[in-house]
Specification:
Radius of gyration: 19 Å
CATH class: Mainly Beta
Largest sheet: 10 strands, mixed
Helix content: under 10%
CATH architecture: Sandwich
Mean pLDDT: 91
Strand content: 35-45%
């Protein structure tokens, strides 16, 4: 999820949603990269009946994420639910009024805004953060023009200053899945997911490296669960879908304009980052691409997450590089 310019910042599935049916059960999967040396240190399998507030804090805000998104994020079961082993982030078309910004970037007083949609966003901010390791999410993204689910990471303490000087790690973004796409293979529309790093200096000097990747069979990622992951070590970050690496970025490809980072090539990606997951409605990346704008038939929509797991490199926890073979 890009926060540009800010001071921080299948058909069956759709039918089931419209009918109010229960979400599908996600099948079991095997452990990641056996023998690589990753050790599980934190996880949420979403096995209970409610969001675990010791792990997650819902964001309540209507500011649009700096991307002109159309939702208010709320802390309501209509937008955030844990059901049958899944975290469900739900976007609905309904007018809602709430605080403009989340607490960490709120003005005083914090104005109130009204948006035409509601949705859900959860974060480990202030509770859990990690430096280096492997972070995985097993998820099923929604289809539809105007949908923008994401799992991403931001610095727990922005040591190098506001966005993007302290960096951003986007593990998964899925924009307008199934919408028309001239650049996509497979003949079924947009079938690529995105991973990215954001860094550099304040807009318009912000920079990013990204990759858009399709599944090997060119299927829509909205039709099934897949595992999206980042492996993050000192000076090396790589992104995977179902254990296939699709983007590798080295320290010579990123930078930060922060004076405090001078002489440190690993900066800004050498600090603890927290995790968040959200389902945005619209926004520039979504509405300016594919079929453009929002499609009414895309909503209601839901982003289903089976689990999120964090691993460290057992033999090399300080840099993580020994496990990135």
């Amino acid at each position: 999820m890009t926060i540009a310019g800010l001071p921080k910042a299948g058909m069956l599935a759709a039918a089931l949603l419209l009918l109010g049916a229960a979400p599908p059960q996600a099948p079991l999967v095997t452990a990641p990269l056996e023998g690589a040396g990753w050790e599980l240190v934190w996880a949420d399998e979403f096995e209970g009946e409610a969001l675990d507030r010791t792990r997650w804090t819902p964001e309540v805000s209507c500011w649009g994420g700096g991307n002109n998104e159309r939702q208010c994020y709320t802390d309501r079961p209509e937008n955030i639910a844990v059901e049958k082993g899944l975290l469900l982030l739900k976007a609905r078309k309904e007018r809602f009024t709430g605080p403009a910004r989340p607490p960490e970037i709120a003005e005083n007083p914090n104005p109130r805004l009204t948006q035409a949609y509601t949705s859900g966003k959860v974060r480990t901010i202030g509770k859990h953060a990690w430096r280096y390791g492997r972070i995985e999410v097993r998820a099923k993204v929604p289809p539809g023009q105007g949908t923008w689910p994401a799992v991403w990471m931001m610095p727990d303490d922005p040591a190098y200053g506001p966005w993007p000087r302290s960096g951003e790690i986007d593990i998964l973004e899925a924009v307008n899945i199934g919408a028309k796409c001239k650049a996509c293979e497979g003949g079924r529309g947009e079938n690529r997911t995105i991973s990215a790093l954001h860094f550099g200096d304040f807009a318009p000097k912000n920079r990013f490296v990204d990759s858009r990747t399709a599944l090997p069979d060119l299927a829509l990622p909205s039709e099934d669960f897949h595992v999206y992951a980042v492996e993050w070590g000192e000076g090396l970050i790589r992104f995977l879908v179902d254990d296939r690496v699709h983007l590798t970025v080295t320290a010579d490809q990123w930078s930060t304009a922060a004076p405090a980072a001078k002489g440190n090539p690993a900066a800004p990606f050498d600090q603890p980052f927290y995790i968040m997951a959200n389902l945005a409605v619209g926004g520039r990346l979504s509405e300016e691409n594919n079929a453009k704008g929002l499609a009414a038939k895309s909503f209601p929509a839901q982003f289903a997450i089976d689990w999120i797991r964090v691993y460290r490199c057992g033999s090399d926890p300080h840099t993580g590089r020994a496990c990135m073979r």
